[in-house]
Each structure stands twice: as structure tokens, then as C-alpha cells.
Amino acid sequence: MDSLTFGATRFVRHLMDPSSRKIPVMEFEVAKILEELQFTMDQFIDLCILCGCDYCDSIKGIGGLTALKLIRQHGSIEGILENINKDKYQIPEDWPYQEARRMFKEPDVTLDIPELKWTAPDEEGLVNFLVKENGFNQDRVTKAIEKIKSAKNKSSQGRLESFFKPTVSTSVPLKRKETSEKPASAAASKKTKSTRGRKK
């Protein structure tokens, strides 16, 4: 959901979920969200920070509904911090919510993009960085590396349509009713039998 706070106009959820889970694809449009909540974009960003984001911890004890209620009452995180019951809610020490807000509104974007060369992955470097330095699961990292190596050997990139199963039509096409004409001899024979049956 952080993509909306960065300025994305739409967010699609559950698009890549397996069909066995039977979860419908959900589309969120930020303009409609702001209209429904009657929020400014700044208030929406503060709401997302209170609910939890990648850049700072949230206030313990404040979930989504409480965060929504507090933003409606006080208008911003600053207003909430001035009025919140600090005995009930534990505010993180040196809480960097302002820096998180700045990251959403003024993200650090690299404009000078170097040329990308598709080479074999540095397996040792990836394991050292992800597993030893950042605590990722080694088995998952190893499997991801194998997927990268396998994808590199494929001749072509898959299209988006390949991720979806075709919709099977359950309707049966109507067939034209065939009209068969009985032979004249058969009709005459039937008429004769009917006439004989009436005689006494």
C-alpha cells in the first residue's frame, strides 16, 4: 500500500495470488480514497505512517481504526502527539515520523540510470549481503538465486497474459433445428391406416 503514499494513482492487490485461494483482485484508487475519507494527501500519508510503514515503527496500541479516528479528530500526527494519552499509547523514542513523511513526499530518486547488463548472479555476494548482514533466510535466498539462473537461460520473457487462465465459456451455442420432411408414401400409408380403422 506504500505505493499510494508515494503518489501512485492506483494500486492492484491479489493480482498474482494463486487461483486456488479464490481471492478477488482488488483495485484501490487514491483519488476515490481521499474523497471517501474526506482527507488531504498529507492526512492520508500520516494515516499510513500510523498504520505502519517501511520507514519507522508505529505507535504501539494504535491500529487502523484508531489511527483513522485520531486523524479525523486532530488532523495530523503532530496534533495527535499533543493530545494523545501517553500512558495508554507508547510512542517510540526519537520517532522518525517526519523523516518517513519526507520520504513519501520527496523520495530520493536516482535519475542517472546506468546501463543494465544481464550477467550471472554473484551468489556469494548475495548470500553475504542478504543472509549474513541482513538476516534473510538462507534457503529462500538460495532458491531465489536458482530461479534467477533458470530465468536467464530462457529464450523469451513471458507475457502478462501467461499468468492468467483463459475464461471458459459455459454457454452452449444454439443449433439450428433441422426440419425433416416425411416421404409422401409414408404419409399416404399412415392416412390409409387411419381411414381403415374408422370402418366397422
Task: Give a brief description.
This protein has 200 residues and is mainly α.
Structure description:
This is XPG-I domain-containing protein. InterPro entries: 5-3_exonuclease_C_sf, HhH2, PIN-like_dom_sf, XPG-I_dom, XPG/Rad2. Its cofactor is Mg(2+). Belongs to the XPG/RAD2 endonuclease family. FEN1 subfamily. Keywords: DNA damage, DNA repair, DNA replication, Endonuclease, Exonuclease, Hydrolase, Magnesium, Metal-binding, Mitochondrion, Nuclease, Nucleus, Phosphoprotein. It is built from nine helices and two strands. With 200 residues, the protein is mostly helical. Among the domains are: 104 residues, 5' to 3' exonuclease, C-terminal subdomain (DNA polymerase, domain 1, Orthogonal Bundle), CATH 1.10.150.20; 35 residues, no CATH class. Strands 1-2 form a two-stranded antiparallel sheet. The termini are far apart.
